Amino acid sequence: MEGKTESLHTEHKRDGHGHHHHERHGAKQPERFDPAKAALLDDPERFSYLPPAKILSLLNPPQNGMVVDFGTGTGTYAHELAKLRPDLNIIAIDEQEEMLDRVKEKLEKNPGLKITPLLTKTGTLPKLDADGVFAVNVLHELGDEALQDIKKIIKQEGKILFIDWSSEIDRPVGPPLDHVYSVKEAAARVKRFGFSVQKEEKLQYHYALICLAKS
To answer: What are the chain's domains?
Structure first.
């Protein structure tokens, strides 16, 4: 299965930057995450301030549902969610082949997990009819076209969960505060692209937006 989108998992220290890409027009921080820093994405300390169970409780996907990890990075959260909910079919998408290679390496060690890695580019993602989409630490990097892509892969009543670093919380990890959104700024941005924000929630270092895609 082939698909195209534009998304990145970002879990970096304050000096972690990549390169500018024109397809990220509209992004707060339009840099590609540096694959050389990919080990940061696998740091288990992440689960202390953003537990996988919290993501599942917010997304609440149906039994045997299809869930898309939009900007999976090294697949850290995709793997944890697959372990917690082995009934789910998880599509782990990213634009960087180096990242997906790490996802595949993990799957070789855990072949029973129902995770499908999918290399993507912006603009031509097929309709997947996913029951849910979660995007962790990527909204501040998503260009305008990538936000439109999300609406192509979700069922009409499917839930979209954006979780990203908050600009309102001083924290020891993550991008600089001026590279990310406040919860209100994030909500305003996704609303401009046709998402209906059903709920806003503030987490330890992050905010969460539970959304539906307007038809």
So the answer is: 62-213 (3.40.50.150)
